[in-house]
Amino acid sequence: MSAANPVSIHEQRRLIRQLLDDSSPDDAPTAYYALFSDPTRATLFIETTDSGQAAGFVGRFQTGIDLFRPLVTLRCQDAGIAAGLLDEALTPGRPYLLFAKLNQLALVGGSLHINNERILLIYQLDPARFHPEINVLVTHNTAHDGTPRCKISSGEAEAVAGVNWQSPAFAEIYVHTDPSARHRGWGGNVAAAITQTVLDSGRIPIYLVENHNEPSRRLAEHLGFVDTGARQVFADATYQGHPGRQG
């Protein structure tokens, strides 16, 4: 049965916490959105057992990734639970962004039409392997959402590193280097700077990257990030309706 109108999203988050290990990089991306993202931009749908324990949830979130396509994540025990919750949470024919642990992908095939599927490796920093790289050209500031940002720029060439999101335990970093700024070492410099900033905040840096992106993987491994073996799916998705009612 579905959870009966919990008092607040904070109560909902307390209920689903048992489904997630927010101290594990494996669950970190899903846990951020489900447990720690802006509650005014988050909507949760929960299935509970007869004893009142959470058996699964679907979360729908408004993000800066795409203003017109809400991000959807989930953690469900089986496809039946996923189908029922997606039917509550989503509108048929509307596009969404699916961002979830890879093992959840098999549960949504009857409900979601998936395009542009990307399987992301989750790298986590091993602090013992990290050696800071100092470049006096690196400037430190904050992004519009208050998260840290490190940059090197000269003329039209720029390398930037920042944080996509941060939870109490983790922060996902990103790196972007203009083509004209490549082969100068700037990408590694700003990545090292943001990694140090995250460590100083008491969080563990993680980095999500596709398997075939060898330059990004080499950069991460050079800084001391290691592949955790965890996999996350990020994909375009269109809700098709409950599979039991289609056709």
The main sheet comes to: 11 strands, mixed
CATH superfamily caption of the largest domain: Gcn5-related N-acetyltransferase (GNAT)
Order of strands across the main sheet: 1-2-3-4-11-5-10-9-8-7-6
Strand content: 35-45%
Q: Tally the helices: what do you get?
A: 5
* Count of domains: 2
- Please give the share of residues in helix: 10-25%
- Secondary structure tally: strands: 11
What is the name of the CATH architecture of the largest domain?
3-Layer(aba) Sandwich
Spatial separation of the terminal alpha carbons:
25 Å
Structural class: alpha+beta
- The low-confidence runs, each spanning 5 or more residues with pLDDT under 50, are none
CATH fold description of the largest domain? Aminopeptidase
Q: So what's the CATH class of the largest domain?
A: Alpha Beta
What is the gist of this entry?
The protein has 247 residues and is an alpha+beta fold. It is 21% helix and 38% strand. The protein has helices at 9-16, 28-36, 79-89, 186-200, 214-223, and strands at 42-48, 54-61, 71-76, 95-101, 112-125, 139-142, 148-154, 157-166, 170-177, 204-210, 225-239.
Can you tell me about this structure?
The chain is of the alpha+beta class and 247 residues long. The protein is 21% helix and 38% strand. The protein folds into 2 domains: 9-120 and 232-239, 3-Layer(aba) Sandwich (Aminopeptidase), CATH 3.40.630; 127-223, 3-Layer(aba) Sandwich (Aminopeptidase). It contains 5 helices and 11 strands. The mean pLDDT is 93.
